[in-house]
Amino acid sequence: MLLSATPPPGPRPAQEVRLYEEAARHRGLTPPRTHPLASITWLGPAASNPALAHRVGGDPAHLAESRRWIEAAVRLPHWGRAHMPDHDLDAGWLLHHLSLAYRWIGDELPDGVRALLRYKLLLQGRRMYENAVASEGGWWSSSYWQNHNWICYAGLATAGYVLGKEEWTERAKENLGTVLDLMPEDGSHAEGVVYWRYGVPFLAIHLDLLQEAEGIDWWGRGGFLSRTFDYRLHQMAPGFTFNVDHGDCHDRRSGHSAGLYYRLAAQYGIPEAQWMGDLASGELLWQEAAESGVRPGILPEAYLEYLWYDPSVAGARPTRTRAFFPDLGLLAARTGWDDDATLVSFKASPGGGHKAWETSAKHRAERGWDTLDQGHHHPDSGSFVLVSQGAFLAVDEGYSNRKRAAHHNLLLVDGQGYADEDRYHVYKDLPYERQARQRDVLVTPDCGWAHATAEIAAMYDPGLGVRRLDRTLVFTPSGRLVLLDLAEADTGREWTFLLQTDRPTEPKPDGSRLIRSGTASALVRQFAPHRASVVSEVTEVTEVEANPTSSAPELRLTRTLHTLRATTARSSHGLFLTAITPGAEPVAAEQVVCAEGEGVAFEGETVLLSPAARRIRTTGVVADAAAVLLGGDGCAPYVVAATRLELDGRLLLDVPEPYTGKVG
After folding, report:
1. Rounded to an integer, what distance in angstroms lies between the CA atom of residue 179 and that of residue 287?
2. Distance, CA of 65 to CA of 366 (rounded, Å)
3. Using the 8-state DSSP alphabet, how is residue 313 labeled?
4. Chain mean position to CA 348
């Protein structure tokens, strides 16, 4: 498709209009005569989009526009100035786009321009190739789970196919095969949604080039590409406009890639991806373009939308409301997809996810290579994001350079977050054993329960003697949230519960706290501990500042987090039992009196938990289980890791091995 500029057959009027608009968007700008300090990635699509538009429609104005930007790019002695000139993202982007422009309109350029463009592509491709060879085992050349790897090798591959440089394409192909084999089969991405939309399209670009140039179909290799739309889908906030901002996210809007949605829809027959492509390139397009913090952003993808859109794929609005991605330990659950629905996203995993953590450890031991560059993965295992009524209520920090657990909805031990944090790459050089994980996961397709327990004790300084720090999260069918935090240490510690919001929480007479965000609200009720010191504050540690790209050193992003803190008296054991009820008129939550275990009851829904002892004893319920979940529009009970359940004197379950699911 890309090399020949040949899209799937059928009409594409909307995509053609998009292409022509994008081809003309920069006509009022003067190309730079010298290299700016900021990134020049945008120069590539400024040339390639009008090149394709001319090829499609034959308008000489588009040809002239493409030539204008080609000449600007080729006269720059280096591609990239502030960081790794000729060897990183600027060069990767320009190699890809200008190589396509050369392929599409090279024969129509004046001889001198064509010769200069070819020379420049050969020069920049050689620089990129030599750097990839020299830096193997260090930076992006072998950082298989990282967007720099995918973008730079896709750029090198594009130039290699266009210029006939087999040495380049073979090296890029070998890397692509490794990446596809090592990416998680569940489609998740530890860098977060913003870097998913920035980097993953280049994996699809490389696969497209490989298939067209060499007849090699690797679209099914490894499983990541076939499932990654599902990951992206379930990290959308209700209403589809905003994204859940786990990982480094410049903002809550930069997440859509209509071109990639179309390519995944066409390749794997995903109707929801086709529907999302139409939405992202239509109704959502200009607001994302205006408010996105990512550049070049969504508009330059017009060439991909045109060439990857397959009109034979029927679109369908998403309906599934629950998903779990085991590699990243990511649980996502929602009450629906409309703007006012409620969503929770809850995660816990080793740095980069389980597969990256395991494989990179082998690379270090066997080759002496450092292949896990996860500077965009935060110390956030056990944290969650809550969205409801069109607003973010329990929030994440977004982008940061000095990453800390205290910037997330997490727990501190004697005021301390994760060991070796407060730096950009918080997982670099950590011991292999420093891993978090999810266990006891329940995702129900019918009545809407979701449950998981995050084990995060290993993430804290061993000197603190933390033996257990488990967070259990339950999302009810009505969108209410129950959190149970269990902590144990070798000696007495202060345990601190953190809840981050965009505005300060408001105290209520009954001791609960109200979260407000615009017209949205939620009530936070903490049942245990009874004598916690509760403070709502904005402090210096929650002023989060970041420079999201070394290519633009002057760029700064700042976010202020309002932090609700609840700290226990010093003890070797800690327990927090918290209910969060979204809604303008939140349904009251009450603590269930339990002889063993902990419980919270709402109108029509009851959550009973015992994630460690697995013994629940209360009025009407006798269970050997991690959880018993009751209610939800007359649904049968659900249990987690249960061997026995008696309900109102009736024996409903008695099995030798722990069972998770519906009972009856």
Report:
1. 33
2. 51
3. S
4. 13
CB 252 within 8 A of CB 240: no
Whether 183 contacts 371, CB under 8 Å: no
At a CB cut-off of 8 Å and minimum separation 6, what does 299 contact?
Answer: 22, 25, 285, 289
At residue 133, φ and ψ (nearest 5 deg) are -65, -45
Residue 516, both tokens:
């407000």
**Tens digit of pLDDT for each residue in 548-561?**
555 555 566 677 89
Amino acid at 498: L
State the Cα–Cα distance between residues 222 and 238, nearest whole angstrom. Answer: 30
- Say if residues 125 and 163 touch (Cβ distance below 8 Å): yes
The pLDDT tens digits for 640-657 are 999 999 999 999 999 999
Residue 620 near residue 603, CB atoms below 8 Å: no
For residue range 201-230, list pLDDT tens digits in order: 999 999 999 999 999 999 999 999 999 999
**Nearest Cα residue to 329 out of 183, 200, 439:** 439
Q: H/E element holding 205? A: helix 193-214
Q: How far is CA 271 from the centre of its chain?
A: 21
In eight-state DSSP terms, residue 395 is: -
Residue 36's closest CA among 658, 653, 554? 554
**Whole-number Å distance between alpha carbons of 456 and 498:** 15
Distance, CA of 145 to CA of 538 (rounded, Å): 35
Closest CA to 131 of 142, 116, 118, 120: 142
Write the CB contacts of 64 (distance below 8 Å, at least 6 apart in sequence): none
Other CB atoms within a 10 A radius of the CB of residue 275 amount to 19
Residue 603 has a CB neighbour count (10 Å cut-off) of 12
By C-alpha distance, which of 204, 201, 208 is closest to 298? Answer: 201
